[in-house]
Amino acid sequence: KNYTSQQPSQKEPAPALAYFHIPLPEFSSFTASNFTGVKQEGISSPSINSGFFTTMVEAGDVKAAFIGHDHINDFCGKLTGIQLCYAGGFGYHAYGKAGWSRRARVVSVQLEKTESGEWQGVKSIKTWKRLDDQHLTTIDSEVLWNRGSNGRGGKDHDRS
């Protein structure tokens, strides 16, 4: 509410990002042809669908949801206007896969700025993964959301 009413006022609600651990059943909607990254194990979601994904869609402001739990999945795919992204396994305290570098998903939110230097609303949301290898390699960079693009960003695999 403050985002659209205080100066500088914005024309629409701020794009929301959701972070939680356990994947929603909707993460099972993707196949190798409609996501960026890799799926190397099954989706460990609850057997009962709580309706949380539908709630995020109905809210209208959620642009991406980021989860963990399945350590050797690191994909992003778009479903009904929301990017669903795995973080990838980062720490060495849990299971991984031999020969597969540990990785962390980075999320970057860029703000618009006026010519006078004042910060404005969110311009874009980008993501990539940083590997824990000798070069700290960056892979799978993509734009998840751009202002004025109807929520369309990066590789659009919308299955509305």
From TrEMBL:
<dbReference type="GO" id="GO:0016788">
    <property type="term" value="F:hydrolase activity, acting on ester bonds"/>
</dbReference>
<dbReference type="InterPro" id="IPR029052">
    <property type="entry name" value="Metallo-depent_PP-like"/>
</dbReference>
<dbReference type="GO" id="GO:0005737">
    <property type="term" value="C:cytoplasm"/>
</dbReference>
<protein>
    <recommendedName>
        <fullName>Calcineurin-like phosphoesterase domain-containing protein</fullName>
    </recommendedName>
</protein>
